[in-house]
Amino acid sequence: MKKQRNKMNKSQTRMIWKNRTCRASITVEAALLYPILILLLLFLLQKTIMYYQQTDQTAQTIRSVEEPDTSKEFGKGVLMKRGMESLKEKAGLQEENVYEN
Questions:
Q1: What is the DSSP string of 25-53?
Q2: Measuring CA to CA, how many Å separate 16 from each of 9, 24, 29, 78?
Q3: How large is the average pLDDT for residues 30-47?
Q4: How far apart, in whole angstroms, are the C-alpha atoms of residue 46 and residue 54?
Q5: How far apart are CA 78 and CA 97, in angstroms?
Q6: Residue 88 CB coordination number (10 Å)
Q7: What is the pLDDT of residue 1?
C-alpha cells in the first residue's frame, strides 16, 4: 500500500498564495494610508480651533465696542445729581466747589 500524502492540488495552492498576497497588500496600503488620514485629521482640527479663536476674539471685540445704553446712563446721572443736591442741602452747603481756593 502506498502511503498517501496529504497533498493539495494546484488550485488549492494558488488560492492560499493569492490570499496571502492580498493580506500583504492590504497591510502595505494601510501603512501608507493611515498616516495620511491622521495628518488630514490634525490639519482639520487645527483649522477648526483657529476659526473658533478668531470668532471668539471678534465676539469679544464687538462686546467691548457696543454702544452704551444712554437712557440708563442719563438716569444714573440725574439720580446722582439729585442725590448730591439733597446731601448739600442737608449739610448746609450752597456752593459746589467749597474746597477750591
A1: HHHHHHHHHHHHHHHHHHHHHHHHHHHHH
A2: 11, 13, 20, 94
A3: 94
A4: 12
A5: 19
A6: 14
A7: 45
